[in-house]
Specification:
The protein is mostly helical. The protein has one domain. It is built from eleven helices and no strands. The protein starts with 13 loop residues before the first helix and ends with a helix.
């Protein structure tokens, strides 16, 4: 359900806004997987750790969203709008909701996802992160929003689970041989679960896209940044910020912060407002295929038979779910 203070943009219909938001989200998510693997994989010469990239992500987003949040809170106070704020007036949402969406949509998701790219290739992330998202979201929507899982949707989810097992099951089996890819696969699945929690929370509370994204960043800025700097200063984490090229730090701040947080955070929440959490996560059917082949083209990663089969099953399961939901809506 859209927030009451989310007016139509430039006269466009809600359907057009939802479609454009979905396209932008898919494009950024696809680029995110390829860029994050290239940046976090030590074998590719990446100089930043997952915690460093998360720091750049938070700082880059905070430059844009913290002043925005400060202005929104003060505007609400001037106009007499009965809105609760938190975190010293930087988050335009109540403290409880800010902690919930900030924890799942910001802190946990970014750290889990970036850590996964250290161990597993981008092709695995292509299948396991957006692929597991509809499964987690459907289960959470059943428990939290009491949305019914129809037999047709259950079949689509079964295809997704089978595809995930084809990809992650092989790496789990090789764990007995000393392989570490399974660690990345589990981290990708956990990241998908974290983002599913955020999407269901956004739907449950009817959150405005901009305010939700600002709240996520506010919690990360005040919670993660001081903790990260403390670990760096005490030597608990290696300091890569002073030794990495400035252009790499700026690139991560702009792409991860402005693109992955500010732009895709707003467009994804807009998409949830229009399509709902389950349909929104199923619309990401394009992400596994695009990012997997992007990894082949830009990163030179091979596509093995189990990856191709898992990719096909996940994409089929997502598309099947979207098709069934459209028929039900009609």
């Amino acid at each position: 359900m859209p927030s009451q203070d989310t007016p139509p943009l430039l006269g466009f219909s809600p359907r057009t806004i939802g479609l454009v938001a979905a396209l932008i989200t898919v494009l950024i998510w696809t680029s995110f997987i390829v860029v994050a693997r290239a940046s976090a994989d030590p074998s590719r010469g990446g100089s930043l750790s997952p915690f460093d990239i998360a720091f750049c992500r938070v700082v880059g987003a905070s430059v844009v969203l913290m002043p925005w949040g400060w202005w929104l809170v003060r505007r609400d106070r001037r106009t007499g709008a009965a809105r609760a704020s938190s975190l010293f007036g930087l988050s335009p949402l109540p403290l409880g909701i800010t902690i919930q969406v900030g924890l799942f949509g910001g802190l946990l998701y970014s750290v889990l996802a970036y850590s996964g790219f250290v161990f597993a290739p981008a092709a695995h992330a292509s299948v396991l992160m957006p692929g597991s998202l509809p499964l987690w979201t459907a289960l959470l929507a059943l428990l939290v929003l009491h949305e019914h899982i129809t037999p047709a949707r259950a079949l689509g989810l079964a295809l997704i689970v089978t595809g995930d097992l084809l990809v992650g099951g092989a790496s789990l089996w090789h764990a007995f041989d000393g392989g570490q890819v399974w660690k990345g696969d589990l981290l990708f699945m956990a990241a998908g679960f974290s983002w599913a929690c955020y999407s269901v929370l956004a739907r449950r509370h009817g959150l405005d896209a901009v305010r939700a994204t600002i709240a996520v960043t506010a919690l990360a800025c005040l919670g993660y940044v001081p903790f990260y700097l403390l670990l760096v200063l005490t030597g608990a984490l290696p300091d890569h910020l002073l030794t990495s090229p400035l252009r790499e730090l700026l690139f991560q701040a702009v792409f991860q912060g402005w693109g992955s947080v500010v732009i895709s955070g707003i467009t994804f929440t807009r998409m949830i407002q229009h399509y709902g959490p389950v349909r929104s996560t199923m619309i990401t059917a394009l992400v596994p295929g695009l990012s997997a082949f992007g990894a082949v083209v830009f990163l030179g990663e091979p596509l093995q038979w189990n990856l191709l089969a898992g990719l096909a099953l996940v994409t089929l399961g997502i598309l099947f779910g979207v098709r069934i939901q459209r028929k039900a809506a009609a």
